[in-house]
TrEMBL record, chain A:
Organism: Devosia subaequoris
Protein name: Raffinose/stachyose/melibiose transport system permease protein
GO terms for biological process, alphabetical: transmembrane transport
Stored InterPro entries: ABC_transporter_permease, MetI-like, MetI-like_sf
Homology family: Belongs to the binding-protein-dependent transport system permease family.
PANTHER family (UniProt xref): ABC TRANSPORTER PERMEASE PROTEIN (PTHR30193), INNER MEMBRANE ABC TRANSPORTER PERMEASE PROTEIN YCJO (PTHR30193:SF37)
Automatic annotation (TrEMBL), chain B:
Pfam family, one: SBP_bac_1
InterPro entries in UniProt: Bact_solute-bd_prot1, SBP
Record carries keyword Membrane: yes
Keywords: Cell membrane, Lipoprotein, Membrane, Palmitate, Periplasm, Signal
Source organism: Devosia subaequoris
A GO cellular component entry from the record: periplasmic space
Name of the protein in question: Raffinose/stachyose/melibiose transport system substrate-binding protein
Amino acid sequence: MSVSVSAAPAVSPAPPAPRLTRRSPYPGWFFTPAAIVYSVLFLAPTFASLYFSLTRWTLFDSEFIGFENFAQFFREPFLIKGLINTVIYAVVTSGLKVVLGLLLAVMLTSQIVARGYLRSVVFFPVLVSTVGVGITFTVLMHPTQGMINETLAMFGIAGPGWLTDPNLALYSVALVDVWKGVGLATVIYIAGLVVIPRDYYEAARIDGATPWQNFWYVTLPLCRPATSTVITLSFIGGLRTFDLIWAMTKGGPGFASDTIASVIYKQYQAGFYGLSTAGNVVLFILIALLVVPLTMILNRKQGHE
Amino acid sequence: MMKTKTLALLGASTLGMLMTASAVQAQQSGYLTILVDNGPQSIATMEAWADAYTAENPDVTIDIEVRPGGGEGDNIVKTRLATGAMADVFSYNSGSLFQAINPTQNLMPLTDEPFQDSVQDSFKSVVSADGEVYGAPFAPAMGGGILYNIPIYEELGLEVPKTWDEFMANNEAIKQAGKVPVIQTYADTWTSQLFVLSDFFNVLAEEPDFAEKFTANEAKFATTPAALRGFEKLEEVAEADYFNADFGAASYADGVRMVATGEGAHYPMLTFAIGAIAETTPDHLDHVGFFAQPGDSAESNGLTTWMPDSLYVPKNAASPELAKDFVAFVASPEGCAVRNEAVGATGPYMVAGCELPDDVPPAVSDMMPYFQEGGQNAPALEFLSPVKGPALEQILVEVGTGSRSAEDAAALYDEDVRKQAQQLGLEGW
């Protein structure tokens, strides 16, 4: 948009030019396709579900019952266990992904043989279907015929019932989740590590830092942005995890590995559509309550650096 | 009607059904879709009926769709009914689960179909709502009790138990002999319910009006000693360590195989498993016997019975006349004969004129006396009350794995059924 600097201010073509620079070159109704898709597929269901969470809904008809569903959902005897399990699961998986992801990333950015190959190996599980992974590990973790326990038996160790022991099932699923998700965390960390300027390491070496001090005082603080990304992503992922748990234990044995998402799904399965919608509203609020402060804390620390 | 359509129409019918909702064209065509659960015997029998039916009506094309069983299956049936995407004919439970799919709104009444004349009233009562009959039986009646391995009983010289104490004594003897007394298969959680559900004859023997009071929110499992016994029985067997080593990870298919081949002695199950044994391990069909779950006294020894699943036609079926004709074919003596041929006899039929073959497997001949003169039987709770909580199977897995006591589990289940009763809008909840 070149504005003419001609010496003839009285000429008419000048006035439209300033208006053109202020306005977007595209008309506003270009947004309508996106707005329609967003409203139909996101806004409408969200508000409809807020309404249906206040009803007793059979899919065929619904009856308004106020906050009864929420009261029922919190009376649900398995819900408290599901809540605790969800938090345990989210903390364990995101914690392990941070630690293992960082260690793998440090290893995979150093000078080792077959680095490119190893990077692909670590990332590969991310590409596999979650349900496929779940079913595979269910077979591997079978208490008597599974490959894991058969291998342990060769060394004379009686392996536990990975998925059938109520005290262990949740952690077994969490470990599989880590196996599957650590590749993504590693990639994020690798990206975070390679942008750390070499000068810091050089300065540290001149000061006589040990490799451990290098890691603790240089690498770790400087890859904080990567850490907060990994924590946020895997924590949210852990809170709403469903597919892996459902594929491996269906929340069992009994209710031992139920999370909020699987409790909600069971209500839906049993035909309590209003109740399960209320559960989803609760899950939405819970994630918001946990993740918004978490992101704020992580981002604030980042600002201090 | 089926004779008139042309082959060209047939080929186009699939497309036509997808493209237009106009029922007129689909009605004329001979294209029928059937949704059936994925149990081995369900698929085998439905395929046999489809083959037999298309042999008689060559212009008809039948597509069989398969769905999962259990809670996932409930979900699919309800969702497809609600969205109007149900197949022309589908199989589903009778009794309390039937009531939960809102039959008056979703299903086509079959009350006045001629084939209903030969269907037993006891069956009609569990597929009726508001005075209309909606279903047609496609399987024999079942018993819930205990399948046992006959060679193990013969080898150890055991008698079929008439009381719970005798049953537990048999279990002890089997364990002493180094064998697995009781098979549990918690990978398929629904199988955990049998000890409680099959005990209902014994509940009714002591509390004849339990079902009515239960529906009216006046009787509870936890506070009715006779009803609590089912939970306690599972607990006793679990505490005595009578289960197979992999009970937490074994599946229904494993359980059926184990009781047939003698890897385990007792498998609490519905008698429809006989069809699965005939399908998967036919060589061992003669090795499996059956008895009702024993109560505490030998005098009142009877069987808890299950009405078979039913075939239904949704209200908006694309080819309703064809669907009704197919259903009538299945619920006829001819249909029973096809079933006998496909998976063998698994129990008494609900249709007059249906005969069992002369050589039935021992598990079936063990069950027949309970249905005949002088035998005692009573329907399972789900046919007397619409109230069944969805979490019973998980609660019982907890009892079986020792993480919850019987009393606690019964109380938890009483809480669980409240939701179902409220969802159904029953009085008194």
